[in-house]
Amino acid sequence: MTLLRQALRFTSPLLPFICRRCRTYSAQAGAVERVISAFRSVSGDEGVSVGSAVREQHGRDESVHSQSLKAVSKILNRLSGLCLNLRKMEVLDLHQEYFYVTMEPGVTRKGLNSYLRDTGLWFPVDPGADASLCGMAATSASGTNAVRYGTMRGNVLNLEVVLADGTVLHTAGKGRRPSYDCKITIKTSAGYNLTNLFVGSEGTLGIITKATLRLFGIPESMVSAVCSFPSVQSAVDSTVQILQAGVPIARIEFLDDVMINACNRFNNLSYAVTPTLFLEFHGSSKSMEEQVFITEEITRDNGGSDFAWAEDEETRGRLWKARHDAWYAALALRPGCKAYSTDVCVPISRLPQIIVETKEDLIRNNITGPIAGHVGDGNFHCLIVLDPNDPDEVQRVHSFTERLARRALAMDGTCTGEHGIGLGKRALLREEVGLLAIEVMQEHYKRYSALDFLTTRCQENKVCFKF
């Protein structure tokens, strides 16, 4: 494990720092030497490197190469404001008979599935990028097949977390082995669900150093399809009806005409430039026939056409690459501009209305905002492309994103299904959950971020950094 930052920029007296927000400077003689000494007292001389090659690689910060969880917890207890590089933590502990695997933060989604390739098991949550699985847990990642397999929140069984004071917590108990088949997890009503408290906490409550994840059997067959529609309404209506018919579809993704045009240009494709659904079916050969038949019937009743099927892995990969490249395809619509993505999520029954209204809002305000969505669970994204040097356009985009979020809240949805609150939606969080819920969250944060280790403050006591 490599610690890239020397210490908390102000609350720790060990380092000189510049607060980016307040632009104040504080220096103390011998601070760097004291930091290095503190690291060595925990990790030993062999665990600390200050060589020029190492410092050049890691932004000229001093770095610690701790080899144990105990050393990491001691460092957290002593120093704050640290940036952690966990890429070398990649221990795997597979239990095929229980359909679960435990790994450290260095293991990525693709890395895990490569490791599992000869076991008949896989981990299906797919946010698009080859992300760290512990990072996916920290952000409660989702993706294209959440409609069938759920999000990270439903697939994390246990976490090992280092709290801000250096305490090591196992959220479902140390050494607990969940005994279940691939569909039904073990029952428990023992205490609070601490695992779900940390899933999605984005590092504000502690550092995840190990995660136990639920695995699934690899489907016997997979078939993907693309289908074009005459309107947004007909495409989204088809989505709702497919789900209402009980089809256990694995993926169902919506791309509007602007997004399809961008994907065609970026990937040299020739899909019809109309609202489009990308679909995927998993199961046995026999069950797939029934799923495909019902889906074709529903989509044709809603004006669907131009079906393109993909059964072999290579063809399916090309099809889904077009979907996963949506961000870059959107950027290519306006070279030299920047992209900003926002998302909301609503009940499935309100999905047709909100997407239609959002499209109208984009057109009315002359905003380039291709839409792509995991519509199977009511979640969609606007990939807005704008000129950051145009104040008028920036303001129009800002106003649009607020209207979109409040439109979702008015439909009993959420202001963000995947992206999180960040800075831009803090006020909307209060509107969504209420003041009491905010106060409860703050109390939890205070309990877990002992000594304010997970928050950096400057001389004016303003929060300048949060981890």
UniProtKB/TrEMBL annotation:
Residues 17-218 form the FAD-binding PCMH-type domain. Keywords: FAD, Flavoprotein, Mitochondrion, Oxidoreductase, Transit peptide. The keyword Hydrolase does not apply. Belongs to the FAD-binding oxidoreductase/transferase type 4 family. GO terms for molecular function: D-lactate dehydrogenase (cytochrome) activity; D-lactate dehydrogenase (NAD+) activity; FAD binding. It is found in: Mitochondrion. One of its GO terms (cellular component) is mitochondrion. InterPro entries: FAD-bd_oxidored_4_C, FAD-bd_PCMH, FAD-bd_PCMH-like_sf, FAD-bd_PCMH_sub2, FAD-linked_Oxase-like_C, Oxid_FAD_bind_N. This is D-lactate dehydrogenase (cytochrome). GO terms for biological process: lactate catabolic process. SUPFAM superfamilies: FAD-binding/transporter-associated domain-like, FAD-linked oxidases, C-terminal domain. Transmembrane segments: none annotated. PANTHER family: D-LACTATE DEHYDROGENASE, D-LACTATE DEHYDROGENASE, MITOCHONDRIAL-RELATED. Its cofactor is FAD. Its EC number is 1.1.2.4.
